[in-house]
Amino acid sequence: MHGVKNGVSFWVELKLHRLKSLKSIKLSPHQIAWQTRYCRNGGIVKNLVAHPSSSTLNIFCGSRAIEIAGADSESQSPCSPDWSSTMPYDWHGVIDYILSSSPTRTNDKGLSSSQNLPLKEREILANPRSLSLVKTQRSLRMKEDDNDK
């Protein structure tokens, strides 16, 4: 979902998480690559995740897409949200949080100052399909996109 308020442009990915813990958020390899690149180029992307079992609404920054999708480590600990609200949800707080987020600063070539990424992250950004290999190694099932025909 794209939004603009008070001159601030942002994207929000809406997710519903039905498992008891937030160990990972389901994002496709292309969503991960897009969110990471968009944030690195100064854009604002948030993942708004409803978690019914805990009655919470959580926001995860798109710059953390690789981490929250569970592709960067073998960690089984729950993801920590960047912002959270319990029922009744604080919708004004959601908007305020999104609007107060400052985009990543970029240099004149459009690159963020944090270009010293680990090799695994650089590979995922260069080839979103490589994420499926990482997840396969972790015994997670992932649908293959059949665009190579």
Task: Describe the model.
Helices cover 28% and strands 20% of the residues. The chain is α+β, with helices and mostly antiparallel strands and 149 residues long. The protein has a 5-stranded mixed beta sheet. The two termini are 30 Å apart.
Short description:
This protein is α+β, with helices and mostly antiparallel strands. It is built from five helices and five strands, in the order ββαββαβααα. β2 (8-16), α1 and β3 form a beta-alpha-beta unit.
Distance between the termini: 30 Å
Named CATH topology: Trna Endonuclease, Chain: A, domain 1
How would you state the average pLDDT, rounded? Answer: 76
Low-confidence spans: 104-115, 133-149
Helix share bin: 25-40%
Supply Rg: 16 Å
CATH architecture: 3-Layer(aba) Sandwich
DSSP helix count? Answer: 5
What's the number of structural domains?
Answer: 1
Strand order of the largest sheet: 1-2-3-4-5
The first-level CATH class name:
Alpha Beta
Per the principal axes of the C-alpha atoms, what is the gross shape?
Answer: flat
